[in-house]
Amino acid sequence: MADWLENAPQAARDYLDGRRPDEVECVIPDLAGVARGKAMPAAKFAKQEKFYLPDSIFLQTITGDWADVPDQAFTEPDMILRPDYSTTTAAPWTGDITLQVIHDALDPDGQPVPIAPRNVLRRVIGLYQDRGWTPVVAPEMEFYLVARNTDPAKPIEPPMGRSGRPAAARQAYSMSAVDEYGPVIDDIYDFAEAQGLEIDGILQEGGAGQIEINLNHGEPVALSDEVFFFKRLIREAALRADCYATFMAKPIEGEPGSAMHIHHSVVDSATGVNIFSAPDGTDTDAHRHFIGGMQKYLPAVIAILAPYVNSYRRYVPDFAAPINLEWGRDNRTTGLRIPVSSPASRRVENRLAGMDCNPYLGIAASLACGYLGLTEKIEPRPQYRGDAYVAEDELPLTLGDALDLLEECAPVREVLGTRFCTVYECVKRMEYKEFLQVISPWEREHLLLNV
Fold it and tell me: In the prediction, which pLDDT does 1 show?
């Protein structure tokens, strides 16, 4: 076994089972959470300690264009990519024996590249650690299985189930609905086991073909790595069953959107005690301040939690997506929910993030709001006890408005890194501009002959 594999997780070594890997995929998540990088023979990977990619991969829009960023070198200088061997995992859907390794991005001086999503999240975690705190998160992933769609002009449809009927909507928590696409679920389980990824639970959500996967709580970078890997393995499992998996926030008209709910808690680094709970089991000031920070600063990071024009189609009333900043205990109509738990597990659930967000950036942005609440000791509004779906809308409802809020919020920019925020805004404004040049079927149908 190559020396570098001695540092790989046990699951990767178990997958090899004495075999020699054929190929290694050297990957790094870009601003969209898309895997960029290169593949190489495993024998060559074993001989190299670093690799190179241009820093321009973080300037690319989702359509493949390149954003013009102030003070960005036009020569596309290389970054140094160093493998994080702890992320080594299988790619069990490939025809040969392939491993994936996530890499960290460094500049020529060996410093973290500030616009790399993994480094943005680490920056926020470092601010917590400087205060003696350790953040803990648990993401929930919602996504749709849909029929193959090769024509962008054609509406997306639910997949055909094993019964020969399209997947049904409004069947939340139905076991028979999950069984309709059992082969996909089976492959998801098999791929996850081969990769050493632990699933806390799989359930049917409210949309036709909509599934939710819950992950166990843990360290934020590790959990973001898991979501990054899960998105790829889920897509591969769906393709095996002749359908697509999509993480769009709102892929099907008239159906609920897909969220990435994020559960947060914070523990004292020295004692491991949850700072949201007092010794007598009651809420602490820190718990209130964390909520207060999210209420104050979440509007400024919506552009990160809802990164595309489609993301804002999820923020509509009566489609199971809160569009408010209220908080409540075990109240799923509020944007911030306090789930039923023991004092040791007391946490805050952010229900605003879409599944289309980059997991590293979404978790970093959410933690940034809580951090500012803790450090500024921000008091939250009173608990909301009714149906918050009828509460006043408090979120920006277009990507352009959301980017304006991010640009204007100095505290958030300081926590996430001003250079990152500048690059992110440039990329997203270019995407928004491209979208505004597209004429939709709705406009042609209702405006062409009527206005």
Answer: 47
Report the pLDDT value the prediction gives residue 394, as an integer from 0 to 100.
84
Length of the chain: 451
DSSP string, 13-50: HHHHTTPPPSEEEEEEE-TTS-EEEEEEEHHHHTT-S-
Helix, coil or strand: residue 255 = coil
CA distance 120 to 106: 12
Phi, psi of 131 (to 5 degrees): -95, 0
Extract the tokens encoding 370.
């809580």
Q: How far apart are CA 415 and CA 421, in angstroms?
A: 10
199: left (phi over 0), alpha (psi -120 to 50) or beta: beta
Domains and CATH numbers, the chain: 3-111 (3.10.20.70), 124-446 (3.30.590.10)
Query: What are the backbone angles phi and psi of residue 295, rounded to the nearest 5°?
Result: -65, -40
Are 308 and 431 within 8 A, CB to CB? yes
Q: Residue ranges of the alpha helices (H) in 136-269?
A: 175-179, 182-195, 220-240
Looking at the DSSP assignment, which residues form a beta bridge with residue 51?
Answer: 81
The pLDDT value given to residue 206? 75
- Which candidate, 117, 54, 171, places its Cα nearest to that of 361? 117
CA distance 147 to 153: 14
Spell out, as residue ranges, where the chain has pLDDT lower than 50.
1
Closest C-alpha among 342, 161, 387, 166 to residue 255: 166
Q: How far is residue 84 from each of residues 3, 5, 27, 28, 81, measured CA to CA in Å?
A: 14, 11, 10, 10, 9
Report the sign of the C-alpha dihedral through residues 45, 229, 361, 363, in that order.
negative
Provide the 3-class DSSP secondary structure of residue 212. strand
A 10 A CB-CB count for 273 gives: 14
3-state SS class at 442: helix
Residue 67 identity: A
Tell me which H or E stretch contains 306. Answer: none
pTM here is 0.95
Query: What φ, ψ does residue 36 adopt, rounded to 5°?
Result: -110, 160
Q: What is the pLDDT of residue 451?
A: 92
